[in-house]
Amino acid sequence: MELIVVLVIVVILALVLVGIYNGLVGKRNRVDEAYAQIQVQLKRRWDLIPNLVEAVKGYMSFEQDVLTKVTEARAGAVAAGAQGPAQQAQAENMLTGALRSLFAVVENYPDLKANQNVMQLQEQLTTTENQISFSRQHYNATVLDYNNGIQVFPAVLIAGMFGFTRREFFDAGVEAQQVPTVNLSLK
After folding, report:
1. Which CATH number is 15's domain given?
2. pTM to 2 decimals?
3. How confident is the model over 51-88, as pLDDT tens digits?
4. Residue 32 within any structural domain of the chain
5. Domain count along the chain
6. 96-108 pLDDT per residue, tens
7. Please, what is the Cα angle at 129 between 126 and 135, to 5 degrees?
């Protein structure tokens, strides 16, 4: 009889441990999936930018430095993709600032504002920016759930044994909150 009670307790503990482990794996996989969704939206953004730059290049002969900054920021964002969420967020924030500068300059060119191709690209980029924002929010909520999951008792014991580590948030940072400076004077 005592042996049966001990076996029942051991089986219940084993089931609880398996449940906790499987829950942590599921949370980790949701974090990875959420990060992949950010990457999908960023790739779309990166693909749209060269088209926008080409569309405005002929109109903006005086603003080549703005186009160069956008192109350089795009290259930096693409390169930062493999460096983790913190570095990628910083590079993407620089790209966002460069795009804001470009959009502000476009407003100063009536012919460019009226160009249907430029307007479509600008609208697609704006939509993509919104999707990136939603993807970041989803990722950060998923990271919060995962980080909480690996830090609460008794899951913290299992997480430590099986190498579940804390994940970084996709932080917008100070750069994203700063308003870009745009000089619209013609040279």
Report:
1. 1.20.1440.20
2. 0.74
3. 888 877 777 666 778 888 888 898 888 888 778 888 88
4. yes
5. 1
6. 888 888 888 888 7
7. 145
